């Protein structure tokens, strides 16, 4: 595949990871509200899911970047 496609896909995946964090920050209430409503466990669960999703996105972006730069034998054309 074209090198620009790999690099563009990596950039899009990083952008998606940033959007996930921004959505989490705007949609999930702050920790103080979770403590007040005694929903701290749910708050931690939601943020752990967000963290795992962002980590997966960044791992995928690293793979796409490596593929685009020709660092992987399987993706060299």
Give a quick summary of the entry:
The protein has 77 residues and is mainly alpha-helical. The protein is 78% helix and 0% strand. Helix 1 runs antiparallel to helix 3 (40-68).
Structural account:
The protein has helices at 3-27, 31-36, 40-68. With 77 residues, it is mainly alpha-helical. The chain has one domain (3-71). Helix 1 (3-27) packs antiparallel against helix 3.
Q: What's the average pLDDT?
A: 93
Distance, first to last CA:
7 Å
Strand content: under 5%
What number of structural domains do the residues give?
1
Relevant terms:
77 residues; mainly alpha; elongated
Protein topology:
Layout: H1 3-27, H2 31-36, H3 40-68
Helix pairs in contact: 1-3
């Amino acid at each position: 595949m074209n090198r620009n496609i790999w690099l563009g896909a990596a950039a899009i995946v990083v952008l998606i990871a940033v959007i996930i964090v921004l959505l989490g920050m705007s949609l999930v209430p702050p920790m103080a509200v979770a403590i007040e409503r005694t929903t701290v466990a749910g708050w931690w669960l939601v943020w752990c899911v967000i963290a795992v999703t962002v980590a997966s996105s960044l791992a995928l972006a690293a793979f796409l970047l490596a593929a685009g730069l020709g660092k992987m034998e399987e993706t060299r054309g």
